[in-house]
Amino acid sequence: MALLDPTELARLLSPLGEAAGCALAVDGGGGEEIAAVGEGQAGPASAPIVVRAELIGSVRAPTEAVARGAARLLSEVLGRRQSLELELESMAVEVLERYEEVTLLHGLGRALGSVFDVAEVSQIALDKALQVVRARRAFVAVVQEGTGRLAVTAARGLDGLPGTLLAEHGLSAEVVATGRRMILHDDEPWRQGDRPEREPGDALLTVPLLLAVADGEDEVVGALTLAGRDPDDRFSAGDASLASAVASQLAGTIHTIRSVQRLAQAENLRREVEIAADIQRSLFP
After folding, report:
1. Nearest-10 crossing angle of helices 64-112, 118-132
2. How many CA atoms lie within 13 A of 37 on its CB side?
3. Of 20, 24, 116, 143, most Cβ neighbours within 10 A?
């Protein structure tokens, strides 16, 4: 932590010097004088200024008691200041992350709004995820209605993978079963059964396509996987948050598409029944 500027240090020292009735000075870690107040000699006693177990300087005063008291007060003030600065930095990072997430979802929502094909919306969502999360390969796998099997609906950097049924005990299947994201680093053990979802030495991030349903339970309709990074370049919690935002939007869109398709099928069936009934009635005398 850097010390305050000399002007502000002098402002903090002034009331302490007036209360003690003596001269005070603050030295930096290298012994150089940074600020001083009062008339006369500010030594010979000295006491360390420590903030979060870090020695950042010292206070000089005529007596050890005054030096220790001033150093203690400055340590507390500077410690509170540092805590506030760290909190503000954390809040700023969170705001930026939220802004990025909101911007991402807004753009994705507009892109998905007019598309009614699961493979096409999967590709759009996948491309959007790759814009914000660095990865060389990625794919979306969706739970098929009726069979419950995971089928790849879109992929990047994985030729021939779309349409493939994934292993029932693979990485994506595990994420779908648990509803929890998975982050594997490049130095974590690799299993033969991890292919085609992961290559040896791969870092991998898989998030579930979670759909919030009426009873409060989440339904998992698939998984979004991003893989392949430079060595030691690990997926972070921020990456997982952005990928999860894309996955959530995609899950809702897939649910809407399937609902529309079921309604269309029901309407077609109703029309077919009506036509068949008309034909049957026409056969009676």
Report:
1. 150
2. 20
3. 24
d(CA 202, CA 22): 65
83's tokens: 């805590």
What is residue 91's predicted lDDT score, i.e. its pLDDT?
67
Please name the residues in contact with 88: beta carbons below 8 A apart, sequence gap of 6 or more.
Answer: none
Token digits for 128?
A: 């959007």
Q: Model pTM?
A: 0.60
pLDDT at residue 281 in the model: 62
Tokens 């107040």 — which residue? Answer: 37
Cα dist. 99→96, 131, 217 in Å?
Answer: 5, 15, 28
**pLDDT score of 1:** 45
Beta strands in the chain (DSSP E): 24-27, 33-37, 45-51, 54-61, 137-143, 150-156, 182-184, 204-212, 218-227
Q: What is the mean pLDDT of the chain?
A: 82
Sequence-separated (6 or more) residues with CB below 8 Å from residue 68: 47
Q: Are 134 and 126 in contact (CB under 8 A)?
A: no
Per-residue pLDDT of 27-74, as tens digits, reads 887 788 888 888 877 878 989 988 878 888 888 988 888 888 888 888
Question: Letter for the amino acid at 20?
Answer: A
Written as six digits, the tokens of 261 are: 């398709």
End-to-end CA distance of the chain: 99
Given a contact cutoff of 8 angstroms between Cβ atoms, the answer to whether 166 and 141 are in contact is: yes
- Rounded to whole angstroms, the Cα distance separating 152 from 222 reads 9
Contact 135, 227 (CB under 8 A): yes
* β-bridge partners, 152: 141
